Amino acid sequence: MERKINYIIKLDHIKELSEEEKKKLKKVTEKFDFRTNEYYLSLIDWTDPNDPIRKISIPSLEELEVWGKLDASNEQNYMKVKGLEHKYSDTAVVLVTNVCAMYCRFCFRKRLFINKGAEIALDISKIMEYIREHTEINNILLTGGDPLVLTTSKLEKILKELSTIPHVKIVRIGSKVPASNPHRIIDDPELLNLFEWFNTYTGKKLYLMCHFNHPKEITEVAKKAISLVQKTGTITFNQTPILKNINNNAEILKTLIENLSFIGVVPYYVFQCRPVVGNKMFSTKIEDTIDIVEKARSQVSGLAAKVRYVMSHATGKIEILGKTKEHVFFRYHRAADPENNGKFMVFKRNPEAYWFDDYTELIEEYKATA
Question: Which residue pairs from 323-328 have beta carbons closer than 8 angstroms and sit at least 24 positions apart in sequence?
Fold first, then answer.
């Protein structure tokens, strides 16, 4: 039986919040959109002011702290046609919607909700033309927003078009739906049929890149949704940012990546939280986070320890490898400039660093005063 999960876009409809809280938080929702749903709200322990699901989904006045940029990784610099980013030679990122099942308060693309429609692929014909012309592209990441918020018929149109492009071998769908509204998957057999068709008849492979941020999201309902997706032949991975007071704890992170491995979801990336407007409250210092990630990885099997600690910098995906007493080590996992591919970098420690630029700017300051 299909369950209707209602979406909530006004704090007024959340009975657990006091009228005083709603009034104060209106300042936040006037700046950054709010959206959640009944399922995700049901995961909150309202008696705990530090509940991680609450922090992920309910606005906070701390979001108004002046900090960061709207597009901290300069994604728009790599947009070749509206809705398509081509940063790495073999990968195209397609922004198919600016809507999610719920808006994470730490979202790094909140600019899409502010500048509605400015970067979204409303017409996919030019995108498909670009992909057809660039035969070096062998994998596509569908993202946004959340592609699984689209109707199945719209998603089918996109997948069927991609299935006709010979050099495209992999399609990834980046989605928080398995964590934020797994009923979207469970109650739509046509979606599962679409996934199975793509994996069985196109000669290509579908990956679902999940966004579980905390162990509390791995509910029995979420596990069922994941299992149904896996039965279609779709491969499941997970990626999450490190979030202050949510998962920047070795035991919590260990539980998250271990529990994901138990249900066949490969822990893929742990991201440094991007320095985006409104995100200061979630951001952690890089050198502290290295310790957290390594401690968590040391306590799990190799399957869970596959996770990499990275940041999506304007110049590429930079892996954060470790530190010594005096130095910190990075490597380009993917680079926008091919000359930087695999480049290993050593910097003097900066305990206050939140982002790669906090190291490179120190070098520039030194050069200027030398």
Answer: 323/287, 323/290, 323/349, 325/349, 328/286, 328/287, 328/290, 328/353, 328/359
Q: How wide is the angle at C-alpha 11 spanned by C-alphas 147 and 105, nearest 5°? A: 50
Q: Kindly report the pTM of this predicted structure.
A: 0.96
Spatial contact of 158 and 198, defined as CB atoms under 8 Å apart: no
Q: Rounded to the nearest 5°, which phi and psi values hold at 131?
A: -65, -40
Sorted by where each starts, the structural domains of the chain and their CATH numbers stand as 7-369 (3.20.20.70)
Cβ neighbours for 361, distance < 8 A, ≥ 6 positions apart: none
Q: Give the pairing of strands 308-313 and 316-323.
A: antiparallel
Alpha-carbon span 265 to 303, nearest angstrom: 10
Retrieve residue 199's tokens.
Answer: 């994996």
Confirm if 56 and 44 have CB atoms less than 8 A apart. Answer: no
Alpha-carbon distances of 272 from 67, 244, 261, 286, rounded to whole Å:
16, 11, 21, 7
pLDDT per residue as tens, the chain (370 positions): 456 789 999 999 999 999 999 999 999 999 999 999 999 999 999 999 999 999 999 999 999 999 999 999 999 999 999 999 999 999 999 999 999 999 999 999 999 988 877 889 878 999 999 999 999 999 999 999 999 999 999 999 999 999 999 999 999 999 999 999 999 999 999 999 999 999 999 999 999 999 999 999 999 999 999 999 999 999 999 999 999 999 999 999 999 999 999 999 999 999 999 999 999 999 999 999 999 999 999 999 999 999 999 999 999 999 999 999 999 999 999 999 999 999 999 999 999 999 999 999 866 554 554 4
Give the DSSP per-residue string, 73-123. T-GGGGEEETTEEEEETTEEEEE--S--SS--TT-TTTHHHHSTTSS--S-
CA terminus-to-terminus distance, the chain? 71
Tokens of 150: 């689209």
Residue 311 phi, psi dihedral angles, 5° rounding? -135, 145
Contact 120, 95 (CB under 8 A): yes
Contacts of 220 (CB under 8 A, 6+ apart): none
Geometric angle at alpha carbon 162, from 241 and 170, rounded to 5°: 50
